[in-house]
Amino acid sequence: MEYIFTLQLPTAAVIVIAVLVAVIAFVAALMILPPSTLKISVSNDSIAVKAVLAPGVHVDRGEVVKCFVANLAVNQEFKPKLKINGWALPGFRLGWFRLENGAKAYLALNDPNSDAVILETSRGSYIILQPQDFTKFTSILKSLGWLKQEYGG
Questions:
Q1: Which of 4, 12, 44, 142 is most deeply packed, by most CB within 10 A?
Q2: Is 9 part of a structural domain of the chain?
Q3: Does residue 136 lie within any of the structural domains?
Q4: Pair 134, 109: CB distance under 8 Å
Q5: What would the pLDDT profile of 55-112 be if each residue is shown by its tens digit?
Q6: How far apart are CA 25 and CA 37, in angstroms?
């Protein structure tokens, strides 16, 4: 005959494990929610960027001085240098950053080494966008009259 005994896990250990699991789930949600809920709304009059748990931005057409496409690998002055308020994960930037040129910019980027739409505002700040379907995005911006030139400042 064989007898089997077990060891009861103390209540304190169960609480510690539950707290660790909750913290890990919370951190995972913080890392997954902003990129997965990102929405860029474009209309004739304004562009707005919103995401859960991340800063957003809204700009009216009258506030935009220039709108153009630039390659961030070539135009180093538009590369993010310092995070002010937002998310910075490998290959992903969302929120307010300081650029290499010293200007403040709102970024929604998933590849900091390729083409992005850059909007320069009358306040001297920038909005740099790179949505998933970049070709469709630039096509819509052109059709609405936001994007008048493909490349350059």
A1: 142
A2: no
A3: yes
A4: no
A5: 899 999 999 999 999 999 999 999 899 999 988 888 889 999 999 999 999 999 988 8
A6: 17
Q: Order across the sheet with 46-50: list the strands.
A: 39-42, 46-50, 57-60
CA distances from 102 to 31, 77, 80, 153 (A): 27, 8, 10, 17
Structural domain including 90 reads: 35-143
pTM: 0.80
Overall number of domains in the chain: 1
Beta carbons of 117 and 138 less than 8 angstroms apart: yes
Max Cα distance, the chain (Å): 86
Cβ pair 126, 120 in contact under 8 A: yes
What is d(CA 151, CA 91) in angstroms, rounded to the nearest whole number? Answer: 22
CB environment 97-122: b (16+ within 10 A), e (fewer) = bebeeebebbbbbbebeebbbbbbbe
CA-based R_g, the chain, Å: 22
